Amino acid sequence: MVTMSWKVEVDGGTCIGSGMCAALLPEVFELEGATATVVEGEVKPDESVLDAADSCPAMAIEVTERGEVIGPRP
């Protein structure tokens, strides 16, 4: 059985530190100083991760699956 996972990255140069991602998913994101970071770079597929990417005001979160960008959604 193949276990699916998503890769999550925050662009530290783009992040404005709003903290929305950390508030939505503290198990995935944390706010360190003025920017957010990812706690775990790979996560189980979860709609909440895409919601966090969608809600980032700076569009600094990227979610990929097998190298294809799936978040933020258009």
TrEMBL record:
PROSITE patterns assigned to the protein according to its UniProt record, in alphabetical order: 4FE4S_FER_2
Metal-binding found in the keyword field: yes
Keyword Nuclease appears in the UniProt entry: no
Gene3D superfamilies: 3.30.70.20
PANTHER family: FERREDOXIN (PTHR36923:SF3)
InterPro entries per UniProt: 3Fe4S_ferredoxin, 4Fe4S_Fe-S-bd, Fe-S_cluster_ET
Keywords associated with the record: 3Fe-4S, Electron transport, Iron, Iron-sulfur, Metal-binding, Transport
Cofactors required: [3Fe-4S] cluster
Name assigned to this protein: Ferredoxin
GO molecular function: 3 iron, 4 sulfur cluster binding; electron transfer activity; iron ion binding
Pfam families named in the record: Fer4_15
Function: Ferredoxins are iron-sulfur proteins that transfer electrons in a wide variety of metabolic reactions.
Domain of life: Bacteria
4Fe-4S ferredoxin-type domain segment(s): 6-34
